[in-house]
C-alpha cells in the first residue's frame, strides 16, 4: 500500500503488518473516545475516566502503558494545571466571595427589579451572563443562580423544567466564548496558540453573542408559552419547601452578608472588565517584554501569555476590591477563601485529566493518520480549526478540555496554515472559541450533568431546552458566521 507522508512529501510503501497495526491504532482511538463518553455519561469522574480511556488507546496501539502514563499523560496534565491554575483558583475564590458577601444575590435581585419579575427568563439569563462575563466560575454561577431563578419562576408560574436551559444560555454560551474580553478560560486558551488576546475578533464576537442571546431567548419564551398552553405550571419538589437551616439532604444553607447598597455589588464585576481591558489593550502593550526570551522564562513570547496574565491580574484585583470593601468582616471572607480553594480543585483537575488523555492519543502512531486526514480534507485553516475543536469538545464533553486537546495537537500547524492563507488569527481565535462552546454540551457533558443535579431535574425533563440553546443555536451561528466572514472577508 502506498502512503503519502505530509511532512516529508515522500510516498512510502507499507507492509500488511503495518497496515493492520495502524488500523488497530485508529480503532483504539475510537473505542477509547466512546469509553470516555460512556463513563462520563454514567457519572464516573473524568479524573478517573480519562486515564482509563487512555490505557485502552495505548493497548490497541501497542505502546507501553506505564511509560505512556508517566511520560505523556502526567506531563500534559501537569502542564495544563501549571498554566491555568491561577485562573481556576482565582475564579472559584472570586465566585464564592461574591456569594458570601451577598453581592451575587443582590445583583440578581437588582437586575430582576430593572427587568421585572414577569420577565423571569430574561432576568435569569442576563443575571447569569453578567456574573459569567464578570469572571465568576461557570459552576459557581450555576449554584448561585438556581435558588434565585427558582423563586423568579415560581412567582411568574413558569414550569421549573425550563430553569436549566435558561441558566445554561447565560453561562455556557455567548459570555463564555463569543463576547470579546470574557475572562473565562475558554476565551483565553486560543491566545496561547494563535498569539491573540481576549478581545480578539470583536466584531464577529459581538454579532455572534447577540445572535445566540436573541435566538436563545426566543426559543425559551416559545417553550414557555407552549408548556403553559398544555397546562404545565411551576411545581416545587418537596425537598425545596423547607427554607433556611438545613435542607432535607442534611446540607447546610450558607448565610451571606448584606451588601450596603445596590451599586456596590457591581463594582467587582466592573473591576474584572476594566482591569482586563486596560492590561490587554493599554498597559501590557506599553511594557518591555524582551526579557521573556531568556532561558530563565522558557524563551516564551508575550503574545502567548498576554491573555492569561491579563485575566489573572483582573481577577486578583477584583478579589482585592471585595476584601477592601468587606475588610471588617474578615471571618466570613476567610470562609469564602477556604471554600473557593476547595471548589477550584475538581474543575481544573478534571479538565487537566482530559488534556492528559488527549496527549496520549496524539502520541500514538495512528494519530498521525487522523491528523493528516484532517489537513487533507481540503478546507482552509479557519474551517479546519472550527471542525476539529468542535468534534473534540463534543467527544470529551468539555469546551476547555476539547479545545486544549485539539490545539495542543494541531495548533502550530493551524497557525502556520492560517498565516500562509492570509486568514486573520483573531478571527480564528474567536470562531474556534465559539466552536468549542457547541457540541461540548452533549448529554454526557459534566457541565450539563452538574447543572441538572443542581436544579434537581433529569435529562428527560430539561435536556431538550439545554441542547437547543447551548448546542443547536451556537453551532448554527458559528456556521453562519463562517459563511459571512468568507463572503465579506472578515470584520
TrEMBL record:
Entry GO terms, CC: plasma membrane
Alphabetical keyword list: Membrane, Transmembrane, Transmembrane helix
Superkingdom in the source lineage: Bacteria
KW Ion transport (keyword) present: no
Keyword Membrane: yes
Transmembrane segments: 20-41, 47-67, 79-100, 120-149, 161-179, 199-220, 266-287, 307-327, 348-370, 382-410, 466-488
A GO term, aspect molecular function: gluconate transmembrane transporter activity
The protein's name: H+/gluconate symporter-like permease
Amino acid at each position: 500500500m502506498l502512503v503519502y507522508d505530509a511532512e516529508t512529501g515522500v510516498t512510502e510503501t507499507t507492509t500488511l503488518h503495518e497496515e493492520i497495526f495502524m488500523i488497530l491504532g485508529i480503532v483504539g482511538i475510537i473505542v477509547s473516545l466512546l469509553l470516555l463518553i460512556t463513563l462520563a455519561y454514567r457519572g464516573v469522574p473524568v479524573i478517573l475516566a480519562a486515564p482509563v480511556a487512555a490505557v485502552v488507546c495505548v493497548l490497541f496501539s501497542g505502546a507501553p502503558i506505564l511509560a505512556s502514563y508517566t511520560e505523556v499523560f502526567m506531563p500534559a496534565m501537569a502542564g495544563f494545571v501549571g498554566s491555568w491554575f491561577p485562573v481556576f483558583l482565582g475564579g472559584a475564590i472570586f465566585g464564592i466571595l461574591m456569594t458570601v458577601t451577598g453581592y451575587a444575590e443582590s445583583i440578581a435581585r437588582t437586575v430582576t427589579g430593572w427587568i421585572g419579575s414577569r420577565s423571569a427568563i430574561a432576568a435569569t439569563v442576563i443575571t447569569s451572563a453578567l456574573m459569567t462575563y464578570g469572571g465568576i466560575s461557570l459552576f459557581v454561577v450555576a449554584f448561585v443562580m438556581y435558588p434565585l431563578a427558582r423563586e423568579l419562576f415560581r412567582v411568574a408560574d413558569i414550569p421549573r423544567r425550563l430553569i436549566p436551559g435558561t441558566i445554561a444560555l447565560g453561562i455556557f454560551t455567548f459570555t463564555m466564548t463569543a463576547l470579546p474580553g470574557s475572562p473565562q478560560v475558554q476565551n483565553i486558551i486560543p491566545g496561547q496558540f494563535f498569539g491573540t488576546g481576549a478581545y480578539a475578533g470583536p466584531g464577529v464576537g459581538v454579532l455572534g453573542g447577540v445572535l445566540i442571546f436573541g435566538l436563545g431567548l426566543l426559543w425559551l419564551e416559545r417553550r414557555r408559552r407552549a408548556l403553559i398552553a398544555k397546562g404545565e405550571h411551576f411545581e416545587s419538589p418537596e425537598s425545596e419547601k423547607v427554607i433556611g437551616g438545613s435542607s432535607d439532604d442534611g446540607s447546610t444553607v450558607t448565610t451571606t452578608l448584606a451588601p450596603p447598597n445596590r451599586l456596590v455589588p457591581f463594582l467587582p464585576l466592573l473591576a474584572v472588565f476594566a482591569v482586563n481591558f486596560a492590561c490587554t489593550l493599554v498597559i501590557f502593550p506599553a511594557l518591555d517584554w524582551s526579557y521573556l526570551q531568556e532561558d530563565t522564562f522558557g524563551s516564551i513570547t508575550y503574545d502567548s501569555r498576554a491573555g492569561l496574565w491579563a485575566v489573572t491580574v483582573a481577577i486578583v484585583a477584583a478579589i482585592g476590591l471585595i476584601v477592601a470593601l468587606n475588610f471588617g468582616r474578615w471571618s466570613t471572607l476567610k470562609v469564602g477563601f477556604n471554600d473557593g480553594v476547595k471548589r477550584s480543585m475538581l474543575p481544573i483537575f478534571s479538565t487537566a485529566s482530559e488534556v492528559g488523555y488527549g496527549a496520549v492519543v496524539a502520541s500514538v502512531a495512528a494519530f498521525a493518520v487522523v491528523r493528516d486526514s484532517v489537513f487533507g480534507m481540503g478546507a482552509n485553516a479557519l474551517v479546519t480549526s472550527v471542525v476539529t475543536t468542535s468534534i473534540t469538545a463534543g467527544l470529551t464533553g468539555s469546551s476547555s478540555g476539547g479545545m486544549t486537546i485539539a490545539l495542543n495537537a494541531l495548533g502550530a500547524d493551524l497557525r502556520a496554515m492560517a498565516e500562509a492563507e492570509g486568514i486573520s488569527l483573531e478571527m480564528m481565535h474567536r470562531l474556534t472559541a465559539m466552536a468549542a462552546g457547541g457540541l461540548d454540551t452533549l448529554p454526557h457533558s459534566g457541565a450539563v450533568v452538574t447543572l441538572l443535579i443542581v436544579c434537581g431535574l433529569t435529562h428527560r425533563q430539561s435536556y431538550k431546552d439545554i441542547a437547543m440553546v447551548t448546542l443547536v443555536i451556537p453551532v448554527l451561528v458559528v456556521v453562519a458566521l463562517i459563511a459571512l466572514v468568507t463572503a465579506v472577508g472578515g470584520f
